[in-house]
Amino acid sequence: MITFSEEKLDLPTGPVHYLKGGNGPAILHLHSAAGPRLSPAIERLSGKHTIYMPTMPGFNGTPAHADVKTMTDLADLTASFVRATIGKGCDVIAESFGGWTALWLAVRHPDLVEQLVLEAPAGMRTKGVGGLPSDPVERERKLYALPDRAPKNPQYDEVLPGNFKASTGYAGGETLDATLLKQLPQIKARTLLLFGTKEEVTRVEDVGRRLKSAIPHSHLSYIYGAAHAVEFDQPERVARLVGAFLERGEAFVVRAPEVA
Amino acid sequence: MKFSYFHLMPWTELDEAPQQWPASNQTFDPARGKELYDSYIDTMAFAEECGFDWVGCNEHHFSPYGLMANCNLVGSVLAHRTKSIKLAMLGNLIPLLNPIRVAEEYAMIDVMSGGRLVAGLIRGVPHEYIAYNVVPGESRDRLREATALIIKCWTEPEPFGWEGEYYQFPSVSIWPKPMQRPYPQILMSASNEESAEFAGQHRAMIGMTLIADLKIAQRCINVYRESARAHGKEPTPDDILIGQNTCIAETDEEAKEHLAAGLNYFHKVLMHSIRDAMRLVVQKSRFFAQEQYGERFVNRLATLDARNIDEMIEAGSVLCGSPKTVIKQMQRIQGELGNGRFNLNMKIGNIPDKVVRRGMELFRDEVLPEAAGL
């Protein structure tokens, strides 16, 4: 079991709290609108990687930064965070809302993103197609195909309303970031797009196809048996695939011998 | 009513039953095998001339029960030997196979035949899991995952990866894709309530065979209907295919005589060692999630074996007799089960091919004109 430490970094715009843990090359993990949560998938990956998981300003009750108001501001803040903590480009894993940030990061700071894993990313969804319902029961159903695997930490539930509000503030009511979409062909990083076979929030037919056709070196994979929160629904499958992708780059499609 | 002509491609040359499973292939004669394949394929192509809507075949391993380890090879031959009849692969034993290969081969048959494939996605009978060394208790979950993957292979417009429990394929893009859109009709087994529920969940058509009791068959169909409705499909009679061992001759007596001889070879020779292997799998694995279904499966085979022809007719297990008699039997079964399709297996055991062919002619000339209106 890897221990994660809670750390704090002071950036010119304000403080950023983050979790750090694991051993090996750095991975930047960008959280969803639900806020930073250590999933079983990330815990598995931390065996071979050092995970940096920043809490975006305004999430988990942290103070907002006056000069960080938009998605591009968040991407620039994330770039400052990477430079200050990791000190060079790294692999990035991003969940849902974090995927939107990660896409802007890859467009605006290509030197900082080596390989990119986007799990059902936000910001590319046609309005009225998919999305999270306001009804909590229905929302849980769309997030988790296997409710037993949803995170049970009461602290997560307490901060959830505030976190959703913070994400809405950055998104500015948009679901499809047309400016970003135009710039996706500039992304240099090899990108793995992950969608659950039970995904209903950011549908493959809508979001997946759009990203696959726009990002030059992208690869779309289905996680069988997962809904939106793939890291929680199918941690073993996600960790296995992402681990191979990060470790072996384009050769992840070439099967490696199994180690006994 | 629509009709499918089905063939098991049995090996007819055994003098005695194999004593263990898998059956020794020491006496297999390739020259005779060639003759049988030629004859069987001719007969299957003839089904089109006889007015059948589908011609079907399936997959079995390690046994003289059937010479089709891969029915898709037969399907590809039939794609060229026929013009309009649907090619029903009933089907590939999905949990035993590479789902990508199934998607590819089915797509090939569909394209080569101009969109005539009926895609059977079948779990198979228990002993096949020994043949391909697959854990029987995984069969249902493998079928579920493989079905989802096969459909993705047929429908995804761009290369994709698949990370599942049993199957991991990092990069997939099959060529060709099927001609039928969005994909070919899928048929699944509903021979027990577990399977019927599963088929309904997948909104598939269903096939049932080796019926020992019409009431149990009816119960399975009801389970299927409810399950399909719960998953957004209102099943029609066309979605229900009832398989029947069938012998049609000039007279009832003649038909019964041929069927009795054919079934004797089928049960006493072809099925002999299979039965033991099936029982072993059912008893020593979780092939059936519920024990009662395993017991029912084994009992069903024993029941069918023990009955005489008249008892089989009464139970709705076979169609046998003159054309007029067979039409009445079809009417009765349809009345009980509400099916819109019959799947007629006419080469039972070692019934001579000329008898089978005569039965097909009688079907064409005397049964179909009336039975089509059922």
Tell me briefly what this model is:
The complex is a heterodimer of chains A (260) and B (374). Chain A is an alpha/beta fold and 260 residues long.
Question: Could you walk me through the main structural features you see in this protein, from its secondary elements to its overall organization?
Answer:
The complex is a heterodimer of chains A (260) and B (374). Chain A is an alpha/beta fold and 260 residues long. Chain A contains 9 helices and 8 strands. In chain A, strands 1-2-4-3-5-6-7-8 form an 8-stranded mixed beta sheet, sandwiched between helices. Chain B has 374 residues and is of the alpha/beta class. In chain B, a hairpin with a 4-residue loop joins strand 5 and strand 6. The model of chain B has no long low-confidence stretch (mean pLDDT 95). Chains A and B meet through helix 7, strand 8 and helix 9 of A and helix 5, strand 5 and strand 6 of B. Strand 8 of chain A pairs parallel with strand 5 of chain B.
| N to C succession of SSEs of chain A | EEEHEHEHEHHHEHEHH
Oligomer: heterodimer
CATH topology-level fold name of chain B: TIM Barrel
Could you give the count of β-strands of chain B?
11
Strand order of the largest sheet of chain A: 1-2-4-3-5-6-7-8
How many helical stretches of chain A?
Answer: 9
Describe the main β-sheet of chain B briefly.
8 strands, parallel, barrel
Which spans of chain B of ≥5 residues are poorly predicted at pLDDT below 50?
none
